[in-house]
Amino acid sequence: MGGAPRQFTLAQLAQRFGLELRGDGDVLIHGVATLASAASGQLAFLANPRYRGQLADCSAAAVVLRGDDADTATMPVLVARDPYAAFAKISALFEARDAHPAGIHPSAAIAADAVVDPSAHVGPFVTIAARSRIEAGAIVGPGCVIGEDCVIGKDCELVARVTLVTRVRLGRNVRIHPGAVLGAAGFGLAMDAGRWLNVPQLGGVVVGDDCEIGANTTIDRGALDDTVLEEDVRLDNQIQIGHNVHVGAHTAMAGCVAVAGSARIGRYCLIGGAAGIVGHIELCDKVTVTAMTLVTHSIREPGEYSSGTPMMENRQWRRSAARFRQLDALARKVNGQDKENS
After folding, report:
1. Is the distance from CB of 125 to CB of 107 less than 8 angstroms?
2. Residues that are catalytic
């Protein structure tokens, strides 16, 4: 794991990521931290103006920030148009990740007609079912279950205990965190003579290149067509994606979002935590849905959308809730007065 500690000079970081260096370029950086906790040899960042006051007391060796904050810093700085994005790129240089040697662990169970590229890593207690394929450089971590007719693309990583139930196809460089389940049967039911019938779920799941799927997230396979995530979609933990949902490229969803079946979400959308999106509606590109919002109809124009009410003191909330029930009667009364006065 990791090997020798990595370190870079500020000049090296500036050149590598196209940043403006102000100060001593020979300063060595061996790690990253926040403004409040950074120590000697570490790089911090200032992206949110509310933390500007922490800069004066910061002990970091250097800070990534915007040009208009650079004059207030007493240490060397790297100037970036987007300090948070620059810091993310630099932080990746210091991420220690386990080595995964090519090969198949002896405890893995692999179907005779499954195909595993020699450069892939298949960890302990992995199961790979019939007609599935693991491509070059892929990592299938311990305890993963790969069902029938699945494809794990080049350089994908299934961290641990990931389940691909059936007909799941991953593009290149997809990362899936522990406990995620892709390709389970969607929630398709028909009522017949007072009893539920399960509607067969005959589609699959298609995940585009460079996607990331969080821990314990579930993505159901389609009923007839596939459930689709386009490239560079990012899903947080404990998200539910229903059958036949289509998520556009570069969209990100925070934890506990639920998207019902056959919804279509555009590109570059941001969905806040615990938001709900009902089925069979469409969100256009570049829509932001704030946390805890329930989206009940299609959104045709880009922008930010919210629902629900903010937190308030309990007694005030109870009074407001009682008044919610009176709104319809009040609206009818106002409309009646308007008609009388017209």
Report:
1. yes
2. 243
